[in-house]
Amino acid sequence: MNLLSKRIYLFYFSILAIVISTVLLFVPGLPLGIDFTSGSTITYRWTDQNPSQEQISKSINNAGFDTSIIQSMGNNEFFIRTADIGQDGKERIDIELEQLIGEKPVTLDTNTVGSSVADNTIRNSIIAVFVASLFVMLYIIYAFRNVEQSYVYAIAAILTLVHDVMVVMALFIIFSLFIGSVVNSIFIVGILTVIGYSVNDTIVIFDRIRENLIVNKSMEFMNVVNQSVRESITRSLGTSITTSIVIISMILFGGQSLRDFLLVLLLGVIIGTYSSIFVASNLLLAWKYGLKK
Amino acid sequence: MRFKGIIVLGVCLVISLLAIFINPIKINNWERGNNDNLLGMVLGLDLKGGTHLVYSITSTAGEEPTIEDAEGVRKIIDKRVNEFGVSEANVQLLGTPPNKILVQIPSQSGDQITFSFSDDGPTMDEIKNKISSAGLSDYQIEKIEDEYIVTYEQTLGLGTSEKIQSNLANSFSVKVMINFSPIRLEGKKEGEDLEFPNIEDLEPLLKDSNIEYEQLNDLGFGAWELILSNFGYGDDSLAEEIMLSLSETKYNLVNLQPKGELNNFIISGGIQSAKRLIGSTAQLDFRVRECGKEKPEELDINVWELVKCYDPQYYNEVATGIESKNLTDASPGTVPELSQPVVNVVFDEDGSDIFYEVTDRISRTGDLLSIYLDNEELVSPGADKAISGGRAYIYGKDIDAERAREIAVQLRSGALPAKLELIQERNVDAVLGSESLTKSLTAGIIGFILVLIFMISYYKIPGIIASLTLIIYLVFVIAIFKILPVTLTLSGAAALILSIGFAVDANILISERIKEELLAGRNLLNSITVGFDRAWPSIRDGNFSTIITALVLYWFGSNFSTSIMQGFALTLGIGVLLSMITSFQVNRILVRLITTSNLFDKTNLFIPISKKTNTDGDA
Asked: What residues of A are in contact with residue B47 (Cβ under 8 Å)?
């Protein structure tokens, strides 16, 4: 079976994916949550009822505010941060809460609140990832020093990483349109995790190519790559299936508060596996043979 | 050889299990697991919750702060909490325009109150009763010699400690022991010639001074016992008032000693330390203290030498212009000349120049250099000669090692451009919601068990080995996180999940490789040896790249106070390093153990189900 027989179409498909992702990142862009924007805080107290955080979260959702952070302070008091509630939002939330919980809460305090992510966090994260990528490239060049043009592997690994991050973000944007996911500070961590997964996945396949190149010196490069991909595909699928099992069970049965974060991880695992097979190796072939049949 | 491996593994496993399940672990001053969290781990604000502090911001002139000042306050507090090692705090401005700041910090070591009564104090039960009536429950109290120590796992909340203090100070009777010396009467025989004050002498005086007391008992021979219930704490004004009113008798008041009053009440603990760190302005300034020049005539020359530099009515202070902004670095430390902790400071160019010029001047005039922090004098040394190099150290009588660390962090992050006042202090639940998290943890465990089932049913014996390796890996990781300790937050947990993924991956790689060698016709032992050798480069390269990434992210996180990145990188680095070691070494030890145990013919059990009939390797 020749997985890369349609390599030229696959290559254009990857380019297209990156182009579409770039567009989506600008329009509509990542849906920024309350960690990045200013919003409102409300402190409620119930006299008799002791509502759960999920009940409150649901009421706020019903009142038209997608995300909220709800922290219990004891004594049936809750500190709530949500998007800017404006003039009439508070009233809508009050009504929803009363309906769901069965008792009108006492409002102890309301306030507007600034973003919780420092301005430089995103910029620092991007620079850090950039620098880390450079070091990883140097390591790959060193680790692959026994094969010809080892820098090609390094560049291919990093391009695959860029592809993965872009596509995961784009898919997240698409999901957000349907299930209202938002980007909060933990999203940064999700993307960092995707990066770690992507690099590892790519390197495992490149390692196989390296090994086969050394063992079968006379074999044509394209065949070596094909054979290596085929040999590592069970491992790639095995790993991604097992990791996905954990993530999917957490999405399905776990708490609501981690959903968006786990979605990033799941997208990362799927895209990472796909790209290590169809993007990373394909880049090596594109380098060696260009884009002609 | 194979037994050595098993013994080492067994010992590590036993130690790790002990570390996980013993709570708390105490070895001298070293303590871990002293909380009620899952397995005694340290959990962050998002997973466990912590302390919710709200401060009002006012400009130094006492007015509404400007937006720039509020932003400045936020940046500096962000920096302070990060540098102090509080992982992933939450700092947000409140109000439009911002005039308050919300700071949520993860659980610290809780509040601790130490207090004692002078002898004859209340009983333990009475004390417990009064603490409960101040609204505190779930606390622990112990008595060590004369001191009572109340420990509370979280913050006491705004006003609770004041309430406890007032309850303890004002609800127990305090006996004030009073002694008068007698008046000797002429012409009486010995034994009857001494006259002591009686109740009519004392009662009106106390009534006139409006002193509310419960009883006044004559103990005989000029000794009296005055019993009061609202003695108070912190100042001696009531004792002084009693003394003043009673000294109006013709008898000589020789002694007045309260018994059973609260004479010590100190609050300490991680939250207190964090509050000092966040809330104080930390404006350092250096002033030249020009000692008095002209001795007033009525003073003795020896007395003058003692007071001319130390009594505010004789000296005069002049600002030097060296302030917090002139520092480029500050760190806690010690110096050989002093037995107490100091804060080492490094001046910028302007600061160094002024410092040189000032020390040069006072070394000649004999004046002093006074160092103030938030308008409180720390210390006022003189100088023997001009000090160049732009380095100095500061200390003060109340600065212990903990305070020195706080001050160093404050000076490094700069003085606040506005004044803060604590207006709310509460305990808060996890940002992500404890109910939600419990559900996610359960789901994660279910997922993990599914993974084990998948691996065992697909890979058979290698699957069992991989599963055992994974469980051992988890035990090691949790033990290490607890011992170090690593504060576990969601970003840390994400890194942990990723490193578990890597461990799974490494085990699958090994199993796959062994299978391939078997299918290629090698015998079992040979396949295992070759399989491990072939799997190693992939595991090594993937894991090394990740460790490199973790190092870079950690460095960035700690140097640019991006704590979310730091937490992720730390957990990822440790997790992956450990995963690489365990999946390779532990897996190898277990495989060797099983293959050499000769229990049954196993070769088939090393080949996954789907491969039996289809041996050409195609998927």
From this structure: none
Question: Residue A2 — very low, low, confident or very high, per pLDDT cuts 50/70/90?
Answer: low
Q: For chain A, list the domains and their CATH numbers.
A: 7-33+118-289 (1.20.1640.10), 39-113 (3.30.70.3400)
Tokens of B249: 């008798």
Angle, helices A120-143 vs A185-215, to 10°: value is 10
Please state, as a whole number, how many other Cβ atoms lie within 10 Å of the Cβ of residue A82: 24
CB-side neighbour CA atoms (13 Å) of B461: 20
B126-148 per-position pLDDT tens digit? 888 888 888 887 888 888 888 88
Q: Which residue of A has its CA nearest to B550?
A: A132
- Asked if A38 and A115 count as a contact pair (C-beta separation under 8 A), the reply is yes
- Beta carbons of B618 and B522 less than 8 angstroms apart: no
Residues B423, B537, single domain; the answer is no
- Is the domain of B496 the same as that of B525? yes
Report CB contact under 8 Å: A111, B451: no
Q: Would you call A204 and B562 a contact, using CB atoms and an 8 Å cutoff? A: no
**Domain range enclosing B396:** 284-405
User: Closest chain A residue to B455 measured between Cα atoms?
Assistant: A242
C-alpha angle with apex B307: B306 to B313, nearest 5 degrees? 175
- CA A198, CA B542: separation in Å to the nearest integer? 10
The percent of residues above 70 in pLDDT, for chain B, comes to 93
Residue B457 falls inside a structural domain = yes
**Is B178 found in the same domain as B69?**
no
pLDDT tier for residue B602 given thresholds of 50, 70 and 90: low
Question: Is B586 among the domain residues?
Answer: yes
Please tell me the pTM assigned to this model: 0.77
Contacts of B535 in chain A (CB under 8 A): none
For chains A and B, CB pairs below 8 A equal 249
Q: Which residue of B has its CA nearest to A202?
A: B542
ipTM greater than cut 0.90: no
Distance CA B458, CA B451 (A): 10
**Is the same domain home to B472 and B342?**
no
How many whole angstroms separate alpha carbon B559 and alpha carbon A14?
Answer: 36
User: Cβ–Cβ of A246/B448 closer than 8 Å?
Assistant: yes
